[in-house]
Specification:
- By secondary structure, the protein is α/β, with parallel strands linked by helices.
- The chain is 58% helix and 11% strand.
- Strands 2-1-3-4-5 form a 5-stranded parallel β-sheet, with helices on both faces.
- The longest helix has 72 residues.
- The chain is rod-shaped, with a radius of gyration of 39 Å.
- The model has no long low-confidence stretch (mean pLDDT 79).
């Protein structure tokens, strides 16, 4: 189920809020009322909004001051603001609205169709951004899961590969030791014979220890034999 976007409506006159709700209800999104700048800032502390419709002329904290507070907060600075005003003092007044961080500036009375179309664009952008964040989070989880699976596979495969390599190297040494023993006869130097015998014992102990490490050897075989 797709979650609805929230639209913040800020105006000190209840009739204006009611009119905005009537115009924007066709968008089928969640409309949140705020009757002052302070109330708007409070709502922005806990909820995420797709767009803010902000009346300029309000007692106490006006729209420009409210917008300045919104833009100073890291959590809310990127929320688009559409200024609504019943007065128009010319280009300077409009410039002040854009300088305060507004993405649009609409004078009352406004065309309901135009206002609804502009708000719908920001709602669509918000929903697309939410989808991108969700897809990015899902992709991150998949990558982490894949890395964990590969790490687990390596943990099970690498010891087996290492044992096989060690076994092959030990077999080569065993062959050399066997060849050496065959070359020694009764007339050979006693020290050489003793060294060869000692080497064979060492190799036999290493082979038993290596065999005990093979998968499936189990713990029933007892403790690992000493190679010495």
């Amino acid at each position: 189920m797709v979650q609805k976007a929230k639209i913040l409506l800020v105006d000190d006159r209840p009739e204006n809020l009611l009119a905005l709700e009537a115009i924007l209800s066709a968008l089928d999104q969640t409309l949140v009322r705020a009757s002052s700048g302070e109330e708007a800032l409070k709502a922005l502390l806990t909820d995420d909004f797709a767009v803010i419709l902000l009346d300029v002329q309000m007692p106490g904290m006006d729209g420009f001051e409210t917008a300045a507070h919104i833009k100073r907060r890291e959590r809310t600075r990127d929320i688009p603001i559409i200024f609504l005003t019943a007065i128009n003092h010319g280009p300077h007044h409009t410039f002040r609205g854009y300088a305060a961080g507004a993405v649009d500036y609409i004078s009352k009375p406004f065309d309901p169709w135009v206002l609804r179309a502009k708000v719908s664009v920001f709602v669509e952008l918000y929903m697309k951004n939410c989808q991108l964040r969700e897809q990015a989070a899902l992709l991150r989880l998949q990558l982490e899961s894949g890395q964990a699976a590969r790490a687990g596979a390596l943990e099970t495969q690498e010891p087996a590969g290492l044992l096989a390599e060690l076994s092959a190297r030990l077999a080569a040494v065993e062959e050399q030791a066997e060849a050496l023993s065959k070359q020694l006869d009764e007339s050979a130097d006693a020290a050489a014979v003793a060294t060869a015998a000692h080497l064979e014992r060492k190799l036999t102990g290493l082979r038993r220890a290596l065999d005990a490490l093979e998968p499936g050897a189990g713990s029933a075989a007892g403790p690992l034999p000493s190679p010495s």
